[in-house]
């Protein structure tokens, strides 16, 4: 019998609940342990050796019930005298629930913590009321700026790309999507995506805002199921360097791709100043006559005009750079060689199957953008 009384477990594992005095001791010890339920369970077991030993979940449940309706006894075991005199359970109080719903209707951007303070209702009651009424907290999606003229330009681009894809199913396999991106030591470490599991808080840290800084600029191209690069570009990038790269190196890089025919390649880049300089446009018209996508000037115009401020339509932006940064910023970067190695390793991990998915995603984005009349699409993906 003594062993049975000392065996820990939750309320649902027993026909007889703990006594009010036992629950009160649990809550009291939880306060002593500053809300650490596992530590509270350990202290309880040491302090009350001859009583049943609750686990941490039992202690948390007792505390939650106390906060919600002022009663530590599980509802299934409450008799007529177990409720608080003259006071109904809060979670059955329709007026309190309506107050919660009215609060989110008036201010959809509020938080449970704010409502807890303003309405003077327990956190868990508000949380349950929202859940039972299908009220969910949705995150904002960051999107790029669009100017009034951009909507028509984006629609025109999507319509023309879809038309060519419908005419030639292999059209996208010949489009060389390109972009440049700079990687630094302190660029991105998303604490929401990185965790350290342990029984106790190890208080892990990651150093940022280093005084010693370094960075590297990369050019990358994606054509079919192949990646060209990453290629080192200077910081800052100049139109002279960029045009020389196109003239002297790009043809060789493309010719090294299996089954790629230079004469079929359609070169794409955005409207960055280095891409629209006269010297760059001259090279493009010479290398890719009638076969480049971008923004032209005067009589030097692309076969398809790239819409301004549209990174959500470039596979490098909506896939490649995000993939690379997620891999390289998983922990602290030591030096420039470490950064370069991580970029190369992350790029090598991209498979042809992944690039096939990217093309399907690209077509999906074109259609969605067209349905949105050229508007933002990231929040719907």
From TrEMBL:
InterPro entries listed in its UniProt record: DUF4817 (IPR032135), RNaseH_sf (IPR036397)
Top-level taxon: Eukaryota
Bias type Basic and acidic residues, positions: 87-97
Parts forming coiled coils: none
Region (Disordered): 73-97
Pfam families in UniProt: DUF4817
Residue span, DUF4817 domain: 19-72
PANTHER family membership: HTH PSQ-TYPE DOMAIN-CONTAINING PROTEIN, TRANSPOSABLE ELEMENT TC3 TRANSPOSASE-LIKE PROTEIN
Protein name according to UniProt: DUF4817 domain-containing protein
